[in-house]
Design goal:
The protein has 273 residues and is mainly alpha-helical. It has a single domain, classed as Methane Monooxygenase Hydroxylase, Chain G, domain 1, CATH 1.20.58.70. It contains 8 helices and no strands.
C-alpha cells in the first residue's frame, strides 16, 4: 500500500501545467489519500478484482430482489418477505457505494506505463457497473411502485368499509350485533393504518436509496469524462515508452476530449418512480 507521503508525486513528470491539469492532479491526490486512510488497496490488480467481485455480488443480489419483488401483493407477501426485501435492498445500496469508492480509487492511481491496459479495464468496469446499477435501480422502482399500489388499495378499502351508514346513530342502546360490528370496523381501521404507515416508511426508504444510486450515476459520468481528459493530456509516447505507434490525436497534451476519442456516456435516470 502506498504511503500518503508518496501520493503527492502521482501527477508529476510530463504532465501539462495548465490550471485544469493541476486541479485534476490535486483531486486525484485527495482521493488517493482518502483511499489510503480508508484502507482501500492501492494495488491495481487487487482493486480490479474487488470491483469485479462486487459487481458480480450486486448482480446476484439484484436477481434475488427481483424474485422477492415479484411476490409483493400476492399470497406470499408476508412481513418476513418484506423484512428480507429491506435487508437485501440495504445490502445492495451499501455494495453499490463501496464499489463506487473502489472505482474512484482505481481512477486516482498514479499514471504508469500500463496506462493503456488500465484504460481498457476502467472502461469495462464502468460499463459493467453502470449496467448492474441500472438493473438494481429498476428493481428499486418496481418495489416502490408496488408499495404505492398496496397503500392505495388499503386506503380505498378503508374508505369503503368506513363509509357505510351507521344504523346505531341516535340509538341510546345499540343491539349487541351492532356493537360487535362497530368494534370489528374499528379494529380493521387500526390494522389498515398500521399497514399504511409500514408501507409508506418503506416507500420513503426506497426513494432515498434511489437518490443514492442517482448520485453514483453522476460519479460514473464524471469518471468517464475524466478518463477521456486523461487520455487527451497524456500522449501515447508518455504512456508507452518505445512504442511509436499510437493514436494520432493523442500526440499532443492539449487536445480536447471530443477530438481524442468517443466516450460512452452514462445516462442519469430520473428520480421519479
Amino acid at each position: 500500500m502506498i504511503k500518503p507521503s508518496a501520493l503527492h508525486t502521482s501527477c508529476d513528470g510530463g504532465v501539462s501545467k495548465s490550471q485544469e491539469t493541476n486541479r485534476r492532479c490535486e483531486s486525484q491526490e485527495k482521493i488517493s489519500i482518502m483511499a489510503y486512510q480508508a484502507g482501500i488497496p492501492e494495488e491495481p490488480s487487487v482493486l480490479v478484482n474487488n470491483i469485479s467481485s462486487n459487481i458480480h455480488r450486486l448482480t446476484l443480489l439484484t436477481n434475488e430482489l427481483q424474485r422477492a419483488v415479484s411476490q409483493l401483493g400476492t399470497e406470499q407477501d408476508t412481513s418476513q418477505l418484506r423484512h428480507s426485501l429491506q435487508q437485501k435492498q440495504q445490502q445492495g445500496n451499501q455494495l453499490a457505494k463501496e464499489t463506487d469508492r473502489l472505482i474512484k480509487a482505481f481512477s486516482a492511481l498514479p499514471v504508469s506505463i500500463d496506462q493503456r491496459q488500465r484504460k481498457i479495464q476502467k472502461e469495462r468496469l464502468l460499463n459493467d457497473f453502470s449496467a448492474t446499477l441500472n438493473s438494481f435501480q429498476t428493481i428499486q422502482r418496481q418495489a416502490a411502485n408496488k408499495e404505492r399500489e398496496f397503500v392505495a388499495r388499503v386506503r380505498a378499502s378503508s374508505r369503503v368499509s368506513g363509509g357505510q351508514p351507521d344504523d346505531s346513530f341516535g340509538n341510546t342502546s345499540p343491539s349487541p350485533s351492532d356493537s360487535q360490528l362497530q368494534v370489528q370496523a374499528e379494529a380493521i381501521t387500526e390494522e389498515d393504518l398500521r399497514l399504511i404507515q409500514e408501507r409508506e416508511s418503506s416507500i420513503r426508504q426506497l426513494e432515498s436509496d434511489i437518490t443514492d444510486i442517482n448520485d453514483i450515476f453522476k460519479d460514473l459520468g464524471m469518471m468517464v469524462h475524466e478518463q477521456g481528459d486523461m487520455i487527451a493530456e497524456f500522449p501515447e509516447e508518455d504512456m508507452h515508452p518505445g512504442d511509436s505507434v499510437g493514436c494520432s490525436c493523442c500526440c499532443g497534451r492539449t487536445h480536447h476530449l471530443g477530438r481524442c476519442q468517443k466516450v460512452k456516456t452514462i445516462p442519469l435516470l430520473p428520480l421519479s418512480c
